[in-house]
Design goal:
heterodimer, A: alpha/beta, 8 helices, elongated, B: alpha/beta
Chain lengths: 273, 682
């Protein structure tokens, strides 16, 4: 992380520091002051030293506030689950000196709070989260593209969404984010009912975002529904793998604390590696 | 053959087939509503499954509708003939062969040298051999009280109870007896095969109410009863049927005279001269001819035959001569060509006199049974002795009393209708009685003025016929010389046979049935008139008695099968050497006590009117009736298909249940969405 303030996160970037990291072959353009003369004397080859650089984290929390996030049949609402996880992460990050910002959107931007590490800033984030309500259609793709352009410095972007949008467009966003050298994690919130489609009577399904109605017999279309879900998740997963996204599938009937803890531990372990 | 429905009321339930459709529409309206976020997957899945889902929906609806329709049809109990019979039909438990062996069935049948009865029996036998396997065969002729089992089948033609008779059939009574037998024995499902020429007089088409009652009862006893009628109405030859209507015998000195009246029915309109042969006893034979004018109407002919007066009793026969002019060889039915008669049997002709006044009683008794005439007798009853009066034994009743009423009046009416004669004389008091809706009787009593020696004079009377007619020699009765001082007026109309000079009737006649009732305005009494001198009273009473005595002659002429005079075994046939059956055949018979009777074919067997099959079908009402035109007997019994409808309904419901059954999760609806994917590589 490139920053002016030293934080607790090991930067993935190599810089001047007191802690030796590793040797690397000299290429034209490297700083000659970094040449290790002893290695040269021993091997007649030019190597430079790289050192670990400690820096602080800039994190953007992105919460999908579309109506679909209000769904919650077998567990709590996706939106509430997301808020809890977002709030928890935000608090932890601010506590350790990281800067956290917040973006809320549906089909438009609802809230844009720049990252700060001020402890009082977390209260602002909390208040904003408390007043947020899921409504409107999903504008995830557009918002992510805007974010990718807006955030100049490298940052950690944590997305909380059900990702009910065009998968190709979404992957395109991931590519955009990666191109801007951002690190991003996706908390993909899902209700088990949305996935297993465990319904047994003909139902009038009402689109939560558009109020469109579809009459269907779940028993009849269940197989096709699950095929569609699998296809989507597989594609999303592969896309996340391709763009090095930290993909986390979150079921609304799971314990959010466990999920957050896993995320934090794995991110710290990852940083030490 | 087209199918029919046993019941049509279930068809009113046809709108019920809309119920599955309505339920389907209603369910669509009340589908559970669910707000859904993952619509993208739902739309994608619906697009893929729409085609199958819709087809499945339509199929489910279709099979539900078909199941309801099958239920309604099952309740209608459809029946179908043709091939369905061979697949679904069933044999009856019992087949009853009803044989009409009345006299008309001896007419020539469809095949040469065979009567209709013989032809029908052979056809029934053939069909019974071929088609009645598995069913119990019973046979019943029109005279039988109940069917009897036919075993073996081939014995049908040899049974005595299918032989020819001269009787008449009452098919309505046959059906009633058949119903009684079914009720008593509950034989199971029945078919009735009837062999009949559909003669109208046998089938009583006018008795609609009785037919309905009997057939409704039959249907109630056996809902699957089927009747097949082997119709045999073709009468291919000319036929002349002879009936003896009346025979009157009288003695003329040493000779006897017999007035023989016959009626000849026919089935053609030819103008011919028909030869008749009359046999008197075993020796005398005469030939006569009857002219038959063109037209279909029957011809009545009276022959006066001289007979030997030495014998008091005689018998004879009259027949259409075979081979004669107009007969064209054998007649269409030779059994109806002959009639039989007896004559001269002495019987005491009795008169009953009920008299209020003793003098009148006495004179009337003498007039009814003059001394010297040994075949006439009278019995006098005082008014208080009327209870002992046996009307039917008398050739005539003379009533000089208040008019009868109640049961007595009814008995007198029956007596007159049967051919009796009743002669009323004034009781002296006004009185009335009801006669066929008319009030007849007596008015006030008129008395001639003092000094009028002639009194009331009868100056008009019928001299050609009636009791005051001229004699055979043309001499008139001394009616004009009769003096009347007292008379009682006759009220109620009627035919005036004689009247006074002031137009008041002296003698009035009312016809009733086969007899007559007369009113005479004065009494044979010294205070009333000179009627008691006998010059008018005697011939008047004797002539009336002669009319009433015809009933005695009719008692000697019986109809085969209808009149019973004791046990058949008491009667032996006489003449022409054949041993005939008194119960079933026409002929001459003598009883063990010496009495002689002539038994003839019932007159109604000469009725040439035959009913159409459609009329017979109508008479059987709700019972299925098939016509068998002498050839194919078993054919169009309809098979009941309600079981098939039940099977269809079950199939439809099973298919519907299979279609709506949810698919097993093992078949591929397993959740394949993993909870936690592999961590994305960085």
């Amino acid at each position: 992380m490139v920053s002016n303030i030293t934080g607790q996160h090991k930067s993935p970037h190599r810089g001047s520091s007191v802690e030796f990291a590793e040797y690397r072959k000299y290429v034209p353009g490297d700083d000659p002051r970094l040449l290790d003369w002893r290695v040269l004397a021993r091997t007649d080859r030019f190597f430079i030293r790289e050192f670990e650089a400690d820096t602080n984290l800039r994190c953007y929390m992105v919460l999908d506030c579309s109506t679909s996030m209000a769904f919650g049949e077998k567990g709590e609402r996706k939106f509430d689950m997301a808020r809890k996880m977002l709030a928890t992460l935000s608090y932890l990050l601010v506590q350790q000196g990281d800067a956290v910002g917040l973006e809320l959107f549906d089909d438009g931007l609802l809230a844009d709070i720049p990252p700060k590490r001020n402890p009082l800033h977390i209260k602002y984030i909390f208040d904003t989260l408390a007043n947020a309500n899921p409504k409107g259609e999903t504008g995830l793709v557009g918002q992510l593209h805007d974010l990718a352009e807006k955030v100049r410095q490298r940052a950690l972007i944590v997305i909380f969404s059900d990702c009910f949008c065009d998968i190709d467009e979404l992957l395109n966003c991931f590519q955009h984010l990666r191109f801007q050298k951002h690190d991003f994690a996706l908390f993909h919130l899902l209700d088990p009912l949305e996935m297993d489609f465990d319904l047994d009577r003909p139902i009038r399904f009402v689109d939560m975002e558009t109020d469109d109605v579809l009459l269907a017999e779940p028993e009849v279309i269940r197989e096709q529904y699950i095929d569609a879900v699998n296809e989507y998740l597989t594609k999303l997963h592969e896309g996340c793998n391709k763009f090095n996204a930290d993909y986390r599938r979150v079921w609304t009937n799971e314990d959010y604390e466990k999920i957050v803890a896993e995320f934090i531990v794995e991110r710290e372990l990852f940083a030490k590696d | 053959m087209l199918g029919v429905l046993e019941y049509t009321w279930p068809l009113y339930g046809l709108p019920l087939i809309a119920i599955p459709v309505l339920i389907h529409l209603f369910n669509r309206l009340r589908h559970r509503k669910l707000n859904w976020a993952a619509m993208m997957f739902l739309r994608q899945a619906s697009r893929k499954s729409t085609r199958y889902a819709r087809l499945r929906q339509w199929l489910v609806l279709l099979f539900r509708v078909l199941a309801v329709l099958a239920l309604i049809l099952m309740l209608c109990q459809p029946k179908m003939g043709g091939m369905a019979t061979s697949v679904f039909g069933s044999r009856p438990d019992v087949i009853v062969l009803v044989i009409d062996r009345s006299a008309s069935m001896e007419a020539a049948g469809p095949k040469a040298l065979q009567s209709k009865r013989e032809y029908a029996l052979q056809e029934l036998l053939k069909q019974a051999r071929d088609k009645a396997a598995g069913s119990r065969l019973m046979v019943m002729d029109h005279m039988a009280e109940r069917p009897t089992e036919l075993k073996p089948v081939d014995s049908l033609l040899d049974l005595p109870r299918v032989k020819a008779t001269d009787t008449s059939a009452d098919m309505l009574a046959v059906m009633q007896r058949l119903h009684d037998w079914i009720e008593e024995t509950t034989p199971g499902s029945c078919e009735v095969w009837i062999a009949s020429d559909l003669q109208a007089s046998n089938w009583s088409p006018d008795n609609e109410e009785l037919w309905k009652a009997v057939t409704d009862d039959l249907k109630a006893k056996d809902n699957e009863l089927v009747v097949r009628v082997v119709t045999l109405k073709e009468n291919t030859r000319e036929n002349y049927a002879l009936v003896v209507e009346d025979v009157a015998y009288r003695k003329k000195g040493s000779q006897g005279e017999l007035d023989l009246t016959v009626r000849i029915e026919r089935n053609n309109t030819n103008e011919i001269t028909l030869p008749l042969e009359v046999r008197m006893g075993s020796a005398q034979r005469e030939e006569w001819e009857v002219r038959m004018p063109s037209g279909r109407q029957p011809v009545r002919h009276t022959m006066t035959i001289e007979v030997d007066a030495g014998a008091d009793v005689g018998w004879g026969s009259v027949a259409v001569a075979r081979g004669g002019q107009g007969a064209k060889g054998a007649d269409g039915n030779i059994r109806d060509d002959a009639g039989y008669f007896v004559y001269g049997q002495t019987k005491l002709i009795q008169s009953a006199i009920v008299g209020l006044d003793e003098q009148a009683r006495t004179f009337l008794g003498i007039a009814a049974a003059p001394p010297g005439l040994t075949n006439l007798t009278s019995r006098i009853y005082k008014p208080e002795e009327r209870e002992g009066l046996e009307l039917m034994e008398n050739g005539m009743v003379i009533w000089q009393d208040v008019l009868p009423e109640g049961d007595t009046a009814a008995a007198i009416e029956d007596y007159v209708r049967d051919g009796g004669v009743v002669l009323f004389f004034p009781p002296g008091e006004p009185d009335q009685l009801e006669l066929e809706g008319k009030t007849v009787g007596w008015g006030k009593v008129d008395t001639a003025a003092q000094g009028n020696k002639e009194g009331f004079v009868v100056d008009k009377w019928d001299i050609k016929e009636g009791p005051l007619a001229n004699t055979d020699q043309g001499l008139s009765l001394p009616v004009l010389e009769m003096q009347t001082w007292k008379r009682q007026r006759i009220i109620g109309g009627g035919i005036i046979l004689a009247s006074f000079s002031d137009e008041e009737p002296f003698l009035i006649r009312h016809g009733l049935g086969e007899g007559q009732i007369l009113f005479c305005a004065t009494l044979p009494h010294d205070d009333w008139s000179t009627l008691n001198e006998g010059m008018v009273l005697l011939p008047m009473v004797q002539r009336l008695l002669g009319i009433g005595a015809i009933r005695y002659g009719k008692a000697q002429l019986l109809s085969s099968g209808e009149d019973t005079l004791g046990e058949s075994n008491d009667w032996k046939s006489v003449g022409d050497g054949d041993a005939r059956s008194f119960a079933t055949e026409a002929g001459l018979f003598r009883k063990t006590d010496g009495r002689l009777v002539a038994v003839n074919r019932p007159a109604k067997e000469s009725d040439q009117r035959m009913l159409a099959f459609e009329q017979i079908k109508k008479q059987f009402g709700a019972i299925e009736v098939f016509e068998v035109k002498g050839e194919e007997l078993v054919g169009q019994r309809m098979a009941k298909l309600w079981q098939l409808m039940l099977v269809f309904m079950a199939i439809f419901l099973l298919v519907e249940a299979r279609l709506i059954m949810p698919r097993s999760t093992d078949e591929g609806a397993e959740i394949r969405v993993s909870k936690t994917p592999d961590k994305a590589a960085v």
